[in-house]
Amino acid sequence: MSVVAEWNEAAASDLIAPFAAREGGLLPALHALQDWLGHVPAEAVTLLARAFNLSRAEVHGTISFYHDFRRHPPGRRVLRLCRAEACQSRGGGEIGAALCARLGIGWGGTTRDGALTLEPAFCLGLCAVAPAALLDGTPLGRVSADSLQEAVAEALP
User: Where are the alpha helices (H) located in the chain, listed in sequence order?
Assistant: First the structure.
C-alpha cells in the first residue's frame, strides 16, 4: 500500500475516473482509493457520488456495509483476525478478546501510538489452518493467544 500524506481531490478524481465508466465500478474505485490513501476519507464520498451518479447515502452505505473499507487511516501495521465460523470454533473468539484486552483497543481500533490496527475479517479462506490471521497481508495459521502476541510484538518497534 502506498499512502500519500494528504487528500488531493484532483488526484482522487483521476484515480476514480476509469472506474466510473464501468458497470459495478464503485467497489473497485473504493479499493483503489483505499490502496492509495490507506482509507476512504469522508471527502471522497461526494466525489464518488458525483462520479457514479449516486446519492452520498448510497456511497456511504456501500463503504459502511463492507468491513474491508476503513474510514480512518490505519496504524503502521494492520492485523486482520478471522471472525468466521471455522476460526471461532477453534478458539478465535477468545484469542481476539485476549488480544483486544492486551492492546487496549476494540475491533477496528488502533493502538494509542498508531503502531497497530486490529481489524475483524469475516473469512480469510484459511479455514484449514484455523484460527487464522493476516499481519500486513502475511497469513498466520493455527494462531494461539501467545503466538499471535509474539507475532504482534515482533512486528512492532
Answer: 9-20, 26-37, 42-52, 56-65, 85-89, 92-103, 145-155
Cα separation, 104 vs 127, in Å, equals 27
Please check the confidence at residue 4 and state whether its pLDDT lies above 70: no
- Asked whether residue 23 carries a pLDDT value surpassing 60, the answer given is yes
Q: Residue 39: how many CB atoms within 10 A of its CB?
A: 18
Cell of 48: 464518488
Band (pLDDT 50/70/90 cuts) for residue 18 is very high
Distance between CA atoms of residues 1 and 74, nearest Å: 11
Q: What is the pLDDT of residue 67?
A: 83
Asked which of 26, 45, 65 is the last residue of a domain, the reply is 65
The CATH number of the domain holding residue 123 is 3.40.30.10
Contacts of 52 (CB under 8 A, 6+ apart): 20, 25, 26, 29, 59
Return the pLDDT at 10. Answer: 96
Work out how many domains the chain is built from and give that number: 2
- Tell me, what DSSP letter sits at residue 70? -
